[in-house]
Automatic annotation (TrEMBL):
<dbReference type="InterPro" id="IPR029044">
    <property type="entry name" value="Nucleotide-diphossugar_trans"/>
</dbReference>
<dbReference type="Pfam" id="PF09837">
    <property type="entry name" value="DUF2064"/>
</dbReference>
<protein>
    <submittedName>
        <fullName>TIGR04282 family arsenosugar biosynthesis glycosyltransferase</fullName>
    </submittedName>
</protein>
<dbReference type="InterPro" id="IPR018641">
    <property type="entry name" value="Trfase_1_rSAM/seldom-assoc"/>
</dbReference>
Amino acid sequence: MSLSISLHLLARLPVPGRVKTRLIPALGEEGACDLQRALLARALQLPSDGFSERFLWLDDSPDAELQALADQLGWTLVEQPAGDLGERMRRIAALGLAESDAVVLIGNDCPALDGEYLSGACIALHAQPVVLGPAEDGGYVLLGLRRIDPLLFEAMPWGTDRVLGLTRERLQQLDWGHQLLPVLWDVDRPEDLPRLAALGIQV
């Protein structure tokens, strides 16, 4: 059975002072904004293999540079729905599942997430209704779904080290099988910056 899978990238528009705020002490507002733009550009360049459609969900209207890059690389640019992170993810997943058999949601904070990782998520979705890409900080960097339930998104302490564990507990309550991908790291704090340099991303 071949699934149609859509990829959904949730991102914040690079605006100085509004993005990567925990890195502003180390990089300054402009530097943190430049990093967000670099991470976003890298995510947009991920290979499209395995995906029927790819959507970039921004929290604001795009600037011309970002719009041009998304167009050039074959992404459909959409403004994020209203609500907290959980509500936005739930609505995006529901919209995606109305058009395709499965959805994969990612952010742009995880530069270690590559085409091979996405391919692993697509393979996992053929076997399980849910796939999770765990983050070192206790959250997740990828969520793949063939079905949806508000329980996965409601009253979730986003941004804490409890997100992955709680999500797995709730999947157990729903009696939904899931597969875990390898643990990755995301860029949130100044101590993450040396790893970025090792990947060749200059800040």
